[in-house]
Amino acid sequence: MDETSPTSIVDTGKGALLVLFLVTMIDMIGFGIVIPFLTYLVEDLATESDILDIGIWVGLLMTSYSAAQFLFSPIWGGLSDRIGRRPVLMIGLLGNTVFFTMFGLANTLYMALIARFFAGVFNGNIAVARAYIGDVSTSKQLASRMGIIGAAFGLGFTVGPFLGGELSSPAERWEMFVGTVFETYPYLLPCIVASLLSIFSLLLAFCYLPESLTSDPRSKRSTQPWTVTMKLTASNVKRMLGTKNIGSLMGVTFLYMFGFTVMHAVFILYTQMSPDQGGLGFSESDNGRIFALIGILGIVTQGGLIGPLTRRFGSLFILRSGLVLTGIGLVLIPYTSIEYVWVWMVVVTGFIAIGNGLFQPSSSAVLTTLARQDDYELGAVMGSQESISSFARILGPLTGGLVWTMTFERSGFFDYHTAFHVCGLLMLLGFVLSFKVQFKSAEKNPQ
Question: Is domain 13-223 given the CATH code 1.20.1250.20 in the classification?
Answer without folding.
Answer: yes
